[in-house]
Amino acid sequence: MTAPRAGCSALVLAGGAARRLGGRDKPAVIVGGATLLDRVLAAVAGAERIVVVGPRRELAELPEDEVAWCRENPPGGGPVAAIAAGLAAVSTPFVAVLAADLPFLTGREIELLRRGAEEPAADAAVLVDPGGRRQYLAAVWRTAQLRAVLPTDPVGRPVRGLFTD
């Protein structure tokens, strides 16, 4: 994160079947000389805590001891199950929830999302792409609010269902 600030963790979702890639390990795909996962981890470097939800991988961007790893239950349970698993390792007031396949995400964008989530009336701030579509796995949440909206059974649930508008 640009000018890292205390109080914000990063939860990076790096599991999934990558069906559109023929089952290829999407976080390991190389873009611009680095894996997709390493590029996202570079954007969140400096977060108070970094949690990757998915199978352990070798990292080029961060020392192994700077990243906590966990898995969703059951494996393949979907992104909301992954968020629930990773959130168990987060204690900061804010958390960035990110897909591992955001190769052009920057620390500056995450910091802008954090500022949006800090607004008094906000529960979260989500990235909107140039086509006007919300990218629900590029968001910063108030951690307490994210916990409050997680369903009791998160398996197979869509991330957009966590948002009210």
UniProtKB/TrEMBL annotation:
Residues of the MobA-like NTP transferase domain: 10-146
UniProt-listed InterPro entries: MobA-like_NTP_Trfase (IPR025877), Nucleotide-diphossugar_trans (IPR029044)
Entries under SUPFAM superfamilies matching the protein: Nucleotide-diphospho-sugar transferases
Keyword Cell membrane included in the entry's annotation: no
GO-annotated molecular function: nucleotidyltransferase activity
Keywords: Nucleotidyltransferase, Transferase
PANTHER family: MOLYBDENUM COFACTOR GUANYLYLTRANSFERASE
Name the UniProt record assigns to this protein: Molybdenum cofactor guanylyltransferase
UniProt organism field: Candidatus Frankia alpina
